Amino acid sequence: MTTVTHAAPTEISVRAPGASRMGFFTDTTVCIGCKSCEVACKQWNDLPADGSSFRRSGSYDHTAELKATTWRHVRFVEMLAPSDLQRQEATDALARGKGGQIPRIPATALADAGGGVAQEEIPDLVALAENGAKRDGAPRGQGGGAHPGEVDVAAAVADMDRWIFMSDVCKHCTNAGCMDACPTGALVRTEFETVILQSDVCNGCGYCVPSCPFGVVDRDHDDGRASKCTLCYDRLEDGLEPACAKACPTDSIQFGPYDELVAVASRRVARLHEKGMDGAYLYGAGDAEGEQIAGGLGAFFLFTEPPERYGLPAHADSPIQQNVVPATLAAFGAGLAAAAGVAAAFLSPTHGRDRGLLLAAVAGLSTVPDAVRILRHRRAS
């Protein structure tokens, strides 16, 4: 069986001849939550280290969200353990399908080690490793299912509280709501098909902030101007990777020509499906899986949970295109219809008082549609 490994950094060229779009592919299955990308982003873009202390009690996610001073944000999502019934069903399925037994640490041993009273035993991950348990039910570097007697590490930890991590960033949307809303042209699309904000053109109106369906754009508290990820435009001009992708130790964040990234991501999803992770899918990769989120995202993701679990919407488009554009077109159409009615009235024989009524309507003394309706009623009678 052909093995499709996780893409190496050298597989995707930084600048490919004829590549019209560059982007990010973030594989959340290999993100370890180290926040190297956050630090590299702040260092390269000279962003303040606000939120660097653990002021948010009960969470390691101290930066909390994307904002004017945080252009990369590693989201920590705590997955709570399933119910006893769900845990028993998973254990039964494992016993039927794999034949292996999960070594567990007795509750008494946990209590002795911690000085307290343990309520239940947990999987002994050290014993799993020492006994040669196979990752995802297959020998390392090979595909296929588990052999008799082997144990899935994924199944072993499925009944534990666990974390999932996701490095979030500006999506550089194909249909960018922030660009639609900006009245000054501060938000522009570059030759790399990325969306950047020109701070010297921004007037601080803030229209772009609610126009982003992902909550990416934010206004700086000091000068009021908007701020967001530039996908390291200055580095791209010199043929360099963005700082976050360069710093990522697991290659969770990959950068390169967009079409190449989609191909790599699609192979990665297929590989995960082969290994039993049927829930793996691409979020925002345009037509890769038959969906269009904001017309396709320049920074797309591989998820194993619903997008809402990562703080992203299942469906997203520019609020401008969803609401303002249809309303504007409807109003424009109504205006054309009214103008046509007025023109028809003036071109046809009519009494002077009818003509005066139309002039009053145009002047705002009554609405044009009302005036047209009155004229039609008079002529019908």
Automatic annotation (TrEMBL):
Transmembrane segments: 324-347
Record-linked InterPro entries: 4Fe4S_Fe-S-bd, 4Fe4S_Fe_S_CS, FDH_Electron_Transfer_Unit
Superkingdom of source: Bacteria
Pfam annotation, one family: Fer4_4
EC number from the UniProt entry: 1.2.1.2
Domain 4Fe-4S ferredoxin-type intervals: 22-52, 161-192, 193-222
Gene Ontology molecular function: 4 iron, 4 sulfur cluster binding; metal ion binding; oxidoreductase activity
Key words, A-Z: 4Fe-4S, Iron, Iron-sulfur, Membrane, Metal-binding, Oxidoreductase, Repeat, Transmembrane, Transmembrane helix
Subcellular location: Cell envelope
GO-annotated cellular components: cell envelope
PANTHER family, per database record: FORMATE DEHYDROGENASE, NITRATE-INDUCIBLE, IRON-SULFUR SUBUNIT, IRON-SULFUR PROTEIN
Protein name per the record: Formate dehydrogenase O beta subunit
Organism: uncultured Solirubrobacteraceae bacterium
